[in-house]
Amino acid sequence: MKWGGIAALCLVLAGCAETYRDQSKPIASKADFDPSRYVGLWYEIARFPVRFQDGCVGVSAEYQPVDQDTVSVHNICRASDGSIRSQIRGTADVVGPGRLKVQFPSIPFVRSDYWVLWVDEDYQTAVVGTPNGTSGWILNRTPTLRADRLAAAKEILDFNGYDIKKLEMTAQ
Hints:
The protein is α+β, with helices and mostly antiparallel strands. It has helices at about 5-10, 35-40, 145-160; strands at about 40-45, 55-65, 70-80, 85-95, 100-105, 110-120, 125-130, 135-140, 170. An 8-stranded antiparallel barrel has the order 1-2-3-4-5-6-7-8. The chain is globular.
């Protein structure tokens, strides 16, 4: 099953996406975000459940520069045996500090918010979310994350109104 088709269907169907964030709380993206330092491979450590990632393990995302304000996006979902279950490619346009709009060709006319809420000084761990709270991720440059960094990432999500009890760890 392709991520794009499922995601497009979810956008059309009312109530498909659960909200994991209290939208009455403010949300803030990283003001000094540097897209050139964000490019490269990231591993998904944890996520809020989204239908298009059901059954995904070993999830990774790779970002590569296209131009000064755009990066390419390549998301891979693996099956438990390590094979590629699904993948999707698209682009993300930088629209503000720490704020990107992601678009996948298989989902025409839809641009989704992708806000980098926090990234550590060395760009090794990141927390990503959306103002509407329907998704959020903890990413890391390696497939494992130390407990103190995981706790810090969860604090960022909590601060931005996310219900961290609904966060799911991703098997790598």
